[in-house]
# Entry
Amino acid sequence: MGKPNRRALPTIIGVSVLTTLGANVAVLVARGDDGPATARGGEQRAQFVAASDSTRISPAAVAPQGRRLTPHILVAAPSTLPADLVAKVRGAKSVKGVEVVDAVQGMVAGKRVGLMGVDPSTFRNYTPKPTARSDALWRNVAAGDVAISFTMGNDGGVKLGSQVPVGGRRTQSPLRVGAYATMGIGDVDAVVSRTTAQALGMPTGNAMLISVPKTEPKTFIKKLRKVLPKNTKAVEVNPEIDYPVAGDVPTANGQVMNARQVRTVIKAAYTRLGWPYVWGGESEQEGGYDCSGLMQYAFAKAGIRLPRVAADQARVGWVVPYSKAEPGDMLIWANDPTAPGYISHIALYLGKGKMLAAPRRGTVVQVQDVYTRNMRGAVRVSPKIANGLGR
# Structure
């Protein structure tokens, strides 16, 4: 999984509490994938949810989907958030909703991932539409299953319906993978019920999601940080990607890469050709690279610190149409059928219709023809923006 770029939560369940995230970065870590799914509609959704076990749970165990809210802010602490703080946030002007959750960096199927303990009846309303409306998914979670992100299942090789170890580095318990479902909170790879979370030894109520008008997250966070307890972080969830109008993309003065930096990035990426795709991989130590890990490695050689995941790497500059792409740009795709619009794959554009990518599980880092299905454009990288986000 990702390294220290986006951590603000306890990193070991039931052992010592370690907080390793910076103050201005988000909290958990997600992964990218390649290759759009081919199924559609109900057939597609059925592929991502394991059948509920009727002997374990009643169909009425989870409340129906309510009014969906977009989570704009994530607050996370090493231990339980004070009740008066939660109440104050709930009552704040412009707050549309607050959802208290348990959140850590834990181990799932041998991978270190962002893990949340949630109330399935209420948390579902903060997730993308395909995820929120699946009663079977949330019944499975309520019954004790773990739901993992689409990319963790698809490219991490974690099979739907399989039993996987979940917990801390020292102590883990077997849980069934009950669903593939990206939660739309940029960096959550696994979700369990709060009952299961407590059995695993996770902190109780140490995080909350806040929904505010989409124009207000930055302003609200500034006010919020003044009243947060020590070591508590407040970060924006999935900030908007900058799609500028024609002519608004800077061309020099350090705002975009110079020719030397472009050459360095491309040369570095070429040195990784042939390395295996490894979900969560970002160095030789992991034995390979995933799509965003490859980008992070290549740009680091030019002194540019990218965030760890594709969804955040898409925000390190300006997104232009593919027809305007130049060598050194990053191409981005939204391939995740469980979270429409979420950027889940990224690659380096080489020019002349070619890209260098870590495609998917079972492949190696390679040069490919560019495909445009589900593509969202090309990121014109700004070293200044990247180094700010990648801290």
In short: The two ends are 17 Å apart (CA to CA). Confidence is low (pLDDT under 50) at residues 1-46. The first strand starts at residue 73 and ends at 76.
